[in-house]
Design a protein that fits this description.
Strand content: 5-15%
Helix content: 25-40%
Largest sheet: 5 strands, parallel
Number of strands: 7
């Protein structure tokens, strides 16, 4: 009997995807770099926290949310997915009653679908917090997958799509070791490098070059160049 091995579109055995939270103004630069290097990903948004279009933010302020109009212009792209992240980005302990889950999950989903005219099927847990109640609510409101913040340091697809642990955060000290392992792996099973973070962190850490280094590496496909030591 022949062994059936799942592959990604176009017969690829490896894939890379990004997951960025909160709808930050720095997403504008991030999306520009993603397009430059041909990367795809998901932006997890809070429909109740868009910055007013006329807002004047203090000069030099790093934590800047995007406005709704700018969000529509930025994220309406076939290579980008919109997912939920809670209407107000609340802690799990603030969600005590069914009406709280309705507002944070269902209404956020519907608001985003109305704004962007696309179905919303994904979710990223605010603060990485979850419990059985929120998982049940996600199922009730037809959310198909939900991303945690727990790094696996692996490239396997999840057993439970509502507890989808990413490979790592872009701030992780092991990022380029993982890139090197991913590039050079010849595992027969499908492998996904799932990177997450917040785009404002690149300004906070003053290291946008870190993302470009990552993008250049994973776009190199099967190259065996060591991205850890740059040799």
């Amino acid at each position: 009997m022949h062994k059936v091995i799942m592959q990604f579109p176009k017969g690829k055995s490896k894939a890379v995807t990004l997951s960025y939270d909160d709808g930050m103004e720095q997403d504008i630069k991030l999306v520009s770099l993603m397009r430059k290097y041909g990367l795809k990903g998901t932006f997890n948004l809070n429909s109740g926290l868009f910055e007013p279009d006329e807002a004047k933010l203090p000069e030099g302020m790093i934590y800047r949310r995007i406005s709704k109009n700018n969000a529509v212009s930025l994220y309406c792209c076939p290579d980008l997915e919109i997912a939920g992240h809670g209407t107000q980005h609340l802690h799990i302990n603030d969600l005590c009653r069914p009406e709280h889950f309705y507002k944070e999950i269902f209404l956020n989903k519907k608001n985003l679908e109305k704004i962007f005219h696309i179905p919303v099927r994904g979710y990223a847990y605010p603060y990485g917090e979850y419990n059985e109640k929120i998982i049940d609510a996600l199922k009730k409101y037809h959310i198909l997958y939900a991303r945690t913040t727990k790094s696996t340091y692996e490239f396997k697809l999840p057993d439970d799509w509502l507890l989808w642990n990413p490979t790592c955060r872009h701030r992780d000290d092991h990022l380029f070791e993982l890139v090197h392992t991913f590039i050079n792996s010849d595992d027969e099973e499908p492998q996904l490098f799932y990177l997450w973070g917040h785009s404002f962190e690149f300004d906070e850490d003053d290291n946008w070059e870190r993302f470009e280094r990552f993008a250049k590496a994973v776009r190199g496909g099967g190259k065996t160049r060591c991205m850890v030591c740059d040799k």
